[in-house]
Amino acid sequence: MYSYPSLYKLYTKYMNTSLFSRKYSALEIKDIVVCGVQRSGSTLLFNMVNEVVHSKPQLLDTYFENERDYRKILQQERSTLVKKNHVYVPLLAKRVKQKISYGFFTHRDIRDIIVSFIQLGWLKEVDDWIKNYNIKNMMYNSILYASTPNMQIIAYEDLVRKPEKVVQYIANTLEIPLTKEQIKQIVEHTSIQQSKKDIGKEVVGQQYPYVSQYIDKHIADGKIDKWRTFLSSEDQQKLNEYCAEYLDFFGYSKN
Q1: Which of 5, 88, 148, 154 would staple 93 via disulfide (CB 3.0–4.6 Å)?
Q2: How far apart are CA 143 and CA 196, in angstroms?
């Protein structure tokens, strides 16, 4: 099942330990996690990493939101699968820092994230999210992950504009040799256009594996800088001021 067999070997070794030491051993298992706030491109990156790592699609749910869920996954066979996370989890950051976990983090212009939420119907007014601290939480979750030593940081803009380089970067990080043809196939299979076509397909009675984490209308258009024409000048100014720390940290222009 795995084109990265060392992960499965570590899992097998863990399962052969005594019940007494199993929980401790689980925390030492090498794993791969893709993280990034919602609408930041984390699912696109997840699909790329998943296809680089696995020769067959994974059909198990590996998403987690907190440390308890993460620890639970680490004690199951799912520990060998690529996992996905939207919210900062200190345990994951610690494991990435110690090089126990491979962490891939994606960021996106937060103004485009806001537009994406509006397009999905999850947000009506920018002011609403500013008042209830949702934007602030997304900013700090992102900055915390991006500040984690050994975290592999990938911009949404590169996922869209330079997918071949991203796939090669993932493979190099995981020390997985890929031919140019394999990279081309992965890029084609995980592209926004192909993923939109595949939503709703089923494989062996289950949802199509490479879009298993997509919801209805999950993919909008993949456009970059759409906030410039979608948001009013007033909302643009509000976000430029409120999100200044995030925009400066990741190098996004306020103009």
Answers
A1: 148
A2: 30
Q: In what order do the strands lie in the sheet with 83-85?
A: 83-85, 31-35, 101-107, 152-155
Which tens digit of pLDDT belongs to each residue from 59-118? 556 788 899 999 888 877 666 678 899 999 999 999 999 998 999 999 999 999 999 988
What confidence tens digit (pLDDT) does each residue in 15-47 have? 444 333 444 444 566 789 999 998 999 988 988
Q: How far apart are CA 35 and CA 106, in angstroms?
A: 7
Name residues whose C-beta falls within 8 Å of residue 166's C-beta, 6 or more positions apart in sequence. Answer: 45, 48, 154, 158, 159
* pTM, to two decimals: 0.81
> Look-up: residue for tokens 């700090």?
140
How many CB atoms lie under 10 A from the CB of residue 206? Answer: 11
H or E element in which residue 207 lies: strand 206-207
- Beta-carbon contacts of residue 229 (< 8 Å; ≥ 6 apart): none
Work out the angle at residue 200's Cα, subtended by the Cα atoms of residues 212 and 224, and round it to the nearest 5 degrees. 70
